[in-house]
């Protein structure tokens, strides 16, 4: 069998599973992480509160739900290829609102071998159904 | 390692983040470098699987005992991002991360070994740095999770914008 690492090329794109975000999904994520911040649950609070110059106007999804969806995409892709997802760094640039659908994408930007391992660097983007960028980041995977 | 503090652990389940509004440390009071109080938490299979379902991840490594046993992990593991749960489970309600309006601006995590059902996970965390940018009050978080054998599970940084 061909070494899966050798088949990976700069520019290769991975598309993860999309997820529909609604109030129930956000409430479920609050339950399983114990993150009951009113940002995610209290619509009235969010309608009436300004965050510096930003006013969200309603509840927003958890940044870490976006994060979890991205890591899942990486694990799903790497596991059958013998790779391990080692690192994800994200910057949350836009909020996700109930009704949005999120879709993670990873693009191979670099491959590098060190003394005992081989690595792949990915550019990460999480977009909404309308193409709006929600999360930008980078990810690192390890191969034997 | 100290025994898990049951009282603290009960409190970490608290749903009303408003209860201690005004009593938690503000940006002014948060001291970079100072450790935050935490409590070890034992992970159950049920908790791990509830979390996995919530992120839409039905990987058999988290659900199928037989499959997981035959994998290099030799048993069920949790999704890497179980730290999202552990971050709140291991901290008390007076911790400033629960202040209503705390915005998650970014995260980075390095994953070492998976957490498993039955593991007792310990968190060492602190503010590492703080700064002001575009009129906003930022904290950089420094977090490391260890298992009962003092092996690092994952380590990372978080950037939050403080509400006050």
Main attributes?
heterodimer; A: 144 residues; alpha+beta; Thiol Ester Dehydrase, Chain A; 6-stranded antiparallel β-sheet; 28% helix; B: 164 residues; 5-stranded antiparallel β-sheet; 5 helices; 20% helix; 28% strand; elongated
How does this model look, in words?
Chain A has 144 residues and is α+β, with helices and mostly antiparallel strands. Chain A has five helices and six strands; from the N terminus they run αββααααββββ. In chain A, β4 and β5 form a beta hairpin. Chain B has 164 residues and is of the alpha+beta class. Chain B has a five-stranded antiparallel sheet with strand order 1-3-4-5-2. Chain B is elongated, with a radius of gyration of 17 Å. Classes of the chains: A alpha+beta (144), B alpha+beta (164). Chains A and B meet through α2, α5 and β3 of A and α2, α5 and β2 of B. β3 of chain A pairs antiparallel with β2 of chain B.
| Biggest sheet statistics of chain B | 5 strands, antiparallel
CATH fold-type name of chain A: Thiol Ester Dehydrase, Chain A
Q: Report strand % of chain A.
A: 25-35%
CATH A-level architecture of chain A: Roll
Count of helical stretches of chain A: 5
Topology at a glance:
The complex is a heterodimer of chains A (144) and B (164).
Chain A: H1 4-7, E1 13-15, E2 19-20, H2 23-33, H3 38-41, H4 43-48, H5 63-78, E3 84-92, E4 101-113, E5 118-128, E6 133-143
Antiparallel strand pairs in A: 1-4, 2-4, 3-6, 4-5, 5-6
Chain B: H1 6-11, E1 41-42, H2 45-54, H3 60-63, H4 65-69, H5 83-89, E2 103-111, E3 120-133, E4 136-146, E5 152-161
Antiparallel strand pairs in B: 1-3, 2-5, 3-4, 4-5
